[in-house]
Specification:
441 residues, globular, binds (3S,4R)-3-hydroxy-2-oxopiperidin-4-yl beta-D-xylopyranoside, four-stranded antiparallel beta sheet, 17 strands, eight-stranded parallel beta barrel, alpha/beta
Length: 441
């Protein structure tokens, strides 16, 4: 009984693996800008933009050379677009959208419904008056930009920090727990071609807050509430570093049937440490098929809302920082990581498994590291605990879904330079394996 059911699943897995061949950039065609390098993998690399900086030629020069997605930093927020009730003002936002159109950049719309940066008149509303005002706001703004927005952050930051898993208290929340789904349905009706996202911070790893967002997305999918994507703001610093399970967390959301995007990336720091973190973010996104792109929250350090933390890719003069170079290299598939694991010897390879588990399921990320000689092909073998089954795999072809499973390179990632490494991953039901072995092939 099990066998016929497995065949389509395996076919699908192989198709996913082979699907990467067409879009993966090779070292030979490595692009030289962030946008082009991301595009070679079918993704975008974007930035937040402030309308009043478009006349700064250094700023606009970097923007148009490097980035292929823009997010208005403040210009599409409620206070900017509807300063008086039912009186709309699109000056700054229109400027950014037309700049983007003229330079072949797409636009992320940010944000239709949010507790913050509301105009004073809305802050003072509640109950049905606020609910109607929110619906009217979403309808008007999404209709104004209908067909011109790649994805809308329909609702921003609606969950509380900490361990409660509760909604954040706000005037919008007090209009009723269904305000989020009403916002999404309203946005869909007004701009049916745009992807509709939920966007938040402190949800980048698995924690009580991201679990609550996960449950909401799962519920929306089950009930047919229109949601297409989840945005992970990814504002990182020493107190809030890039989480160890970043990729696994992106993957578990993607497995719900939504795209995932890194929407407001900035990482405080400098030098190689900052560069390494930026590269980790790229690698996490590239490893998740439905991670469709990354946006940084500003261009130069001096443009940042957290300028003191020098968290961006260009310094105040517009010069590329080490974080820029590591981002570009990671987008181009460069394997160089500063902390290469111990050399397993010529011709050999090692596999290390990192596991993200939750009740009933797991995502495993396996890093394959070449020894003293380059690999031209590899096979990772692992034995799943009884009752576990692989439901989806990426960057590898798989031999079976249960028991002892062999993961063979997907072709485009067969070559690994001496000391270099590459990653594959898989998701499954039950519990995941703690270890795996690697053999050159
Ligand atoms: C920030 C802007 O960068 C600032 O210019 C503004 O003063 C405050 O908002 N989460 C979000 C963004 O979703 O809209 C915020 O942007 C940063 C945190």
């Amino acid at each position: 009984m099990g066998k016929p059911a497995r065949i389509p699943l395996l076919t699908a897995v192989v198709a996913v693996a082979l699907g990467g061949v067409a879009v993966a950039a090779t070292a030979a065609d490595a692009a030289t800008t962030l946008g082009a390098s991301a595009a070679a993998t079918g993704r975008y690399y974007g930035t937040a933009v402030a309308a009043n900086k478009l006349s700064d030629s250094t700023y606009a020069g970097i923007l148009d050379r490097e980035f292929d997605m823009v997010t208005p930093e403040n210009e599409m927020k409620w206070d900017a677009t509807e300063p008086a009730q039912n009186s709309f003002s699109y000056g700054g936002a229109d400027q950014i959208v037309s700049h983007a159109r003229a330079h072949g950049q797409r636009v992320r719309g940010h944000a239709l419904a949010w507790h913050s940066q509301q105009p004073g008149w809305a802050q003072n509303l509640g109950g049905t008056a606020l609910r109607s005002a929110m619906v009217n706001h979403i309808t008007q703004v999404a209709t104004h930009y209908r067909g011109q927005i790649y994805a809308w952050d329909v609702v921003n930051e609606a969950f509380a920090d900490g361990g409660s898993g509760a909604r954040r208290d706000s005037n919008l929340q007090r209009t009723g727990n269904d305000w989020i789904e009403v916002a999404f349905r309203t946005a869909r009706a007004a701009d049916p071609a745009a992807k509709l996202c939920y966007n938040d911070y402190n949800t980048d790893g698995q924690n009580a807050k991201s679990n609550a967002v996960y449950a909401m997305v799962q519920d929306f999918k089950a009930r047919g509430v229109p949601i297409d994507c989840v945005g992970f703001q990814s504002h990182f610093n020493a107190a809030s570093p890039v989480p160890g399970d970043y990729q696994a967390n992106l993957q578990r959301f993607a497995a719900l049937g939504v795209d995932v995007q890194i929407t407001e990336l900035d990482i405080e720091g400098s030098g190689q440490a900052q560069a390494d973190n930026y590269a980790r973010v790229v690698r996490a996104c590239l490893a998740v098929t439905r991670c469709t792109g990354i946006s940084v929250w500003g261009i130069r350090d001096t443009d940042s809302w957290r300028a003191g933390g020098t968290p961006l890719l260009f310094d105040g003069n517009g010069t590329k920082k080490p974080a820029y170079t590591s981002t570009l290299n990671a987008l181009n598939g460069g394997a160089a990581t500063p902390s290469t694991p111990a050399d397993p010897g010529p011709g050999a390879c090692t596999a290390s498994v990192s596991l993200n588990s939750w009740p009933g399921g797991f995502v495993a990320t396996v890093r394959v590291t070449a020894g003293g000689a380059a690999l031209t092909g590899w096979t990772v073998t692992t034995t799943l605990p009884s009752g576990a089954a692989v439901t989806n795999a990426w960057n590898a072809r798989i031999s079976s879904t249960t028991g002892t499973v062999r993961f063979t390179d997907a072709g485009y990632n067969a070559s690994v330079p001496a000391g270099g490494s590459t990653e594959l991953g898989f998701q499954g039901t039950g519990s995941g394996p703690a270890s795996a072995t690697c053999a050159a092939s």
